[in-house]
Specification:
The protein has 383 residues and is an alpha/beta fold. It folds into two domains: 4-147, 3-Layer(aba) Sandwich (Rossmann fold); 152-381, Rna Polymerase Sigma Factor, Chain: A, CATH 1.10.1740. Helices cover 47% and strands 15% of the residues. It is globular.
Length: 383
């Protein structure tokens, strides 16, 4: 029976690719949400006919309602900060694919899990900022969290055998290294927006592309992996794999290593999250070993790419430190994309925010929201 998917962030890069997978699988769309892209969301609604949709922006929602007035059965259109969470609460979905960018996705993840609905998670901030809250909700309802990030999907796939999972020694997260691998601070000082958005392997949204260039993305993935796989940061290694063919690896107690390989195509991890535990034919291309000239490896430079070092310190501190790192980074990246700060300022500001407090202790959702706001304020006060 075809699954019904609530797709949060349908107009973004992950959202658009998710709809390609949904088409290939013959699944149904139970809900769609977007930020402000009325044109694309309207086209998606007319194709998939979801009963409920949402936009973050009120004016955009009113515009969408007007455009859909000629439909025989127009969808319910929600809007506002809580719109994605409300869509999850109201829609009839078998699985929620959360592709919202940023901490805004946390409440939607918690709402789905609280309702016993599985979450295919492309919103890494849910675990980075509120990992303890997410795991507690999963423990209560028994809902599953299925990783969509290619690296975490790779690890998840390597650990499907329960006996292997018990003998896990460490995780090896691979990274492309981004467009500036091997560069020193002097070279990075003059980096502009266009250069930073030119990723060598992946086609992604602006925010995650900048995060890849600063290696913040890999730092966030380290924190996310701690929650997903129950390992401390010292048992999570980061290795640069320039071709993005090996998506990540796991090493067991006997020192054997399993790796998951594939083309750098997000449709593959998206599909596995939606079809787990089954594997089905899909739109992602096969890996062609005849054209694969080689695989290269290296180590990330955490002294130069300070976001990575800041995330590892935040992981070691625990508590709300990862939330602070994430909030500071979101604010700094937004400033960089508006060309108000330099590329190197992003790492300086994230590192400074993480070092500004101990962030120790337990937390509730209100604490996460407050910490995020304070981290953004820190960035604005230290430009």
């Amino acid at each position: 029976m075809a699954k019904k998917v609530a797709l949060l962030g349908s107009t973004g890069s992950i959202g658009r690719q998710s709809l390609e997978v949904i088409d290939a699988l013959g699944y149904q769309v139970a809900a769609l949400t977007a930020g402000r892209n009325v044109d694309l969301l309207e086209r998606q609604i007319r194709k998939y006919h979801p009963p409920v949709v949402a936009l973050a922006d009120e004016a955009a929602a009113e515009m969408l309602r007007g455009r859909l007035s000629n439909l025989k059965e127009p969808p319910q259109v929600l809007y506002g900060r809580d719109a994605a969470r409300n869509v999850v609460a109201e829609c009839d979905a078998d699985i929620v694919l959360n592709a919202i960018v940023g901490i805004a996705g946390l409440e939607a993840t918690l709402t789905a899990l609280a309702g016993g609905v599985d979450v295919a998670l492309a919103n890494k901030e849910s675990l980075v900022a509120g990992g303890d809250l997410v795991l507690k909700e999963m423990a209560v309802t028994g809902a599953n969290l299925l990783p969509v990030d290619s690296e975490h999907s790779a690890i998840f796939q390597c650990l499907q055998d329960v006996h292997s999972a018990k003998s896990l020694e460490k995780i090896i997260l691979t990274a492309s290294g981004g467009p500036f691998y091997g560069w020193n601070p002097e070279q990075l000082a003059g980096v502009g927006k266009a250069q930073a958005l030119n990723h060598p392997n992946w086609s992604m949204g602006q925010k995650i592309t900048i995060d890849s260039a600063t290696l913040m993305n890999k730092g966030l993935e380290l924190i996310e992996a701690m929650w997903l796989f129950g390992l401390p940061p010292e048992r999570i290694e980061i290795l640069v794999q320039r071709e993005s063919i090996i998506h990540s690896m796991v090493q067991f107690s006997d020192h054997s290593v399993l790796a998951q390989l594939g083309m750098p195509d997000m449709r593959l991890p998206i599909q596995y999250a939606l079809t787990w535990p089954r594997r089905l034919p899909g739109p992602a291309p096969a890996l062609d070993f005849d054209t694969l000239s080689g695989l290269s490896f290296g180590r990330p430079d955490a002294d130069t790419f300070r976001c990575l070092a800041a995330c590892r310190r935040a992981a070691e501190k625990g508590g709300l430190a990862p939330c602070a790192a994430n909030g500071a980074n979101e604010e700094a990246v937004a400033l960089f994309l508006r060309e108000e700060i330099s590329f190197l300022d992003i790492g300086r500001l994230v590192e400074g925010c993480v070092d500004s407090d101990s962030y120790a202790g337990g937390y509730a959702l209100d604490d996460v929201v407050l910490c995020d706001a304070q981290a953004r304020q820190y960035v604005r006060e230290h430009l």
